[in-house]
């Protein structure tokens, strides 16, 4: 089926039509993500970057399995060499990951066949000069790859810098740039933000106790388009672009602020005090409200009106530090670090319900086929309904026993990277789950 992607103004007309038909506008947005700058991508069949085509963890309504495991709903399973926490992306017939050989100090980008899991290629992009220390929950290959349908963009930390590299879909390196210096000393916890694509640019964040930055580079050449300083403070959140309050805004938390920038120029639009010094999760939004959470050294989740007024609508002391949240149809779903699931009213912060599950939690959620998929670090994958009235568990699955990456869900398939630990032995796997045909 040929899908004609529509700009935001036309999308608002579709949303109005959806309301008349009784369809959820958020689901319509998820199915018709504005990919007009990326004509080779499809929101239905691709998962081209961190948190998916809509950038908010909301996938299409195509049904996918709710019950899955080593022997259930498995289309294929393949070993992944090395170690990494980058989440898979899916572009056409390829599934893309990064990984690191920590013993030999080599960074790789990997591609697998979407239908069979067969390894297609492995490209070495750096050798040597890994940082001396890293946080035990971080890896040397944590940022997810981003793709514009023609190229792949990946970031790595080595040689006291953040490297931005572009490959073609066959794994050939097109260009490589130093996005910025990066050599944290106060907290040697590694690097985590995923690259962000916007129009003709790829945007990279680097936040540490030095010359922190946001910088944009031309996708085709790697030439720098703009650079904006950030506070000198270690933080790990990936920037995200959302159309809120009538304009495109680059949203980023961290350094005790919730901030918005013009993604075309890097100029600050607004900033308010909130969250904590260090955050890891990517901000989410619903309507004209944006949401952020942080967990070091304190804990706070808050909602901000994104019109530049600086209005904080509500705040609480819950903590989603490493994981992102999910905002959907006027409510926010949050699985906190210690494994408590919350549902809050997005406009006033009212707690709709809470449910004790199990932590710790690092992965972020995906809403697909009418269900939310959310895993904890032990490999327990919860599947539940986005129901603001009550917690409605659909399935509790076990996939591996070491789970930090988030799933990619598109085209009726779930792609999940996990590891299996047995004593000192650890092996990563990439799974593809799908309903039986």
TrEMBL record:
- Which parts of the sequence belong to the Pyrrolo-quinoline quinone repeat domain? 108-296, 300-384
Sorted UniProt keywords: Signal
For the keyword Nucleotide-binding, the answer is no
Q: Which residues form the signal peptide?
A: 1-29
**Which InterPro entries has this protein been placed in?**
PQQ_b-propeller_rpt, PQQ_rpt_dom, Quinoprotein_ADH-like_sf, WD40/YVTN_repeat-like_dom_sf
Protein origin, superkingdom: Bacteria
Protein name according to UniProt: Dehydrogenase
Q: Where does this protein come from, organism-wise?
A: Schlesneria paludicola
The upper taxonomy is: Bacteria, Pseudomonadati, Planctomycetota, Planctomycetia, Planctomycetales
